[in-house]
Automatic annotation (TrEMBL):
UniProt keyword annotation of Chaperone present: no
Annotated ranges, domain Alcohol dehydrogenase-like N-terminal: 35-146
Cofactor(s) of this protein: Zn(2+)
Name of the protein this chain belongs to: Glutathione-independent formaldehyde dehydrogenase
InterPro entries linked to this entry: ADH-like_C, ADH-like_N, ADH_Zn_CS, GroES-like_sf, HCHO_DH_non_GSH, NAD(P)-bd_dom_sf
EC category: oxidoreductase
Alcohol dehydrogenase-like C-terminal domain segment(s): 197-266
Length: 396
């Protein structure tokens, strides 16, 4: 291992691939740890959550190595790692979780109590999530490896499906979690807000869970066209601000059984201006009485770039009384990837979930990461997958 390179955040609107330190068996506070492995990164993806930081919409510090969607090969392991071996190909949940605390023991790994001194929950390469170095790099260290890592049982078979399996680190479990918490089941009518990669993953999850109709709303016509191409009902939000009426045109009534917010705090209203609560308020309007709303879209405690003063501290103009009156259920928070990734891996390996095609995955080199960020920020209907060592190109 030598010559590590990684994607570094340099300030609002700017990322750069730079030489970075090789990973070591040490925690962010400098403690030596033996429960970790070092991975040679096989694939690592650009996420919409990364874009929030790069746009300057968080308190992310300059110099942060980005990347929380990681798949890799074990090249070194600590003395306390018993269940993994050098050479294993593994998927890395974006959650950093200890496996020992109260929340980890109930598989609520998105809010591990020990890996982040500031608050519950840790993640790789992300602001306020414990200081764990990100994996948009050639090599990365992963702590609590026996608990966190999902080993692919057959390396060759996994590499043949690597474009799909790379989505197990975040967006596929995140979309699935949103669909599960929204109560999607056989015969459900479902509305997904946002036709980006997480929205498409949520729609794909709703379909595999048995939904009868899956609608996806967005302003981006390229993303809507792709959603239609892969079998979902597009809802062009630029055509009207009456979402219920557009839903009724598809399913006959102005309501759905389940709604999923895959947009988050940078939501834009019909006027074209930011309205951070607009999607949540729309969800309450169109979700049936006693229905559920899954919220995998990111909301932050601080948003220095917010257009509304209250939103700078994470306060939203939420019409909560409507949701209360309709006895709706809401579920928010970081997805506990470990709760779902093994089942989703099996669905991929048995050709039940062609998620790479659904999210329109495109492989680019690590050195082209800045171009990928720029294109994704402009609304490209693409999920960019970084290929640090050229492995994915060879597999394709």
């Amino acid at each position: 291992m030598s010559g590590n390179r990684g994607v570094v955040y340099l300030g609002p609107g700017k990322v750069e691939v730079q030489s970075i330190d090789d990973p070591k068996f040490s925690a962010p506070d400098g403690r030596k740890i033996e429960h970790a492995v070092i991975l040679r990164v096989v694939s690592t993806n650009i996420c919409g959550s990364d874009q929030h930081m790069v746009r300057g919409r968080t308190t992310a510090p300059q110099g942060l190595v980005l990347g929380h969607e990681i798949t890799g090969e074990v090249i070194e392991k600590g003395a306390d790692v018993e269940m993994l071996n050098v050479g294993d190909l593994v998927s890395v949940p974006f959650n950093v979780a200890c496996g020992r605390c109260r929340t980890c023991r109930t598989l609520d790994t998105g809010v591990c109590l020990t890996v982040n001194p500031a608050r519950a929950g840790g993640a790789f390469g992300y602001v306020d999530m414990g200081g764990w170095i990100g994996g948009q790099a050639k090599y990365v260290m992963v702590p609590y490896a026996d608990f966190n890592l999902l080993r692919f049982p057959d390396k060759d078979r996994a590499m043949a499906k690597i474009r799909d399996l790379t989505m197990l680190s975040d967006i596929l479990p995140t979309g699935f979690h949103g669909a599960v918490k929204a109560g999607v089941g056989v015969g459900s009518t479902v509305y997904v807000a946002g036709a980006g990669p997480v929205g498409l993953a949520a729609a794909a999850s709703a379909r595999i869970l048995g939904a009868a109709v899956v609608m996806i709303g967005d302003f981006n016509k390229e993303r809507l066209a792709h959603a239609k191409k892969v079998g979902f009902e597009p809802v062009d939000l630029s055509q009207s601000d009456r979402l219920g009426e557009m839903v009724a045109e598809i399913v006959g009534v102005p309501e759905v059984d389940a709604a999923i917010d895959a947009v988050g705090f940078e939501a834009v209203g019909h006027s074209g201006k930011e309205q951070p609560a607009v999607v949540l308020n729309q969800m309450m309007e169109i979700t049936r009485a006693a229905g559920s709303i899954g919220i995998p879209g990111l909301y932050v405690t601080e948003d220095p770039g917010a257009s509304e003063t209250a939103a700078k501290q994470g306060n939203l103009s939420l019409r909560f009384g409507l949701g209360w009156a309709k006895a709706q259920s809401f579920h928010t928070g970081q997805t506990p990837v470990l709760r779902y990734n093994r089942q989703l891996m099996t669905a991929i390996l048995h050709d039940r979930l062609p998620i790479a095609d659904i999210v329109n995955a495109e492989i680019i080199s690590l050195e082209d990461a800045a171009k990928g960020y720029e294109s994704f920020d402009k609304g490209a209907a693409t999920k960019y997958v970084l290929d640090p060592h050229g492995d994915l190109g060879k597999a394709a």
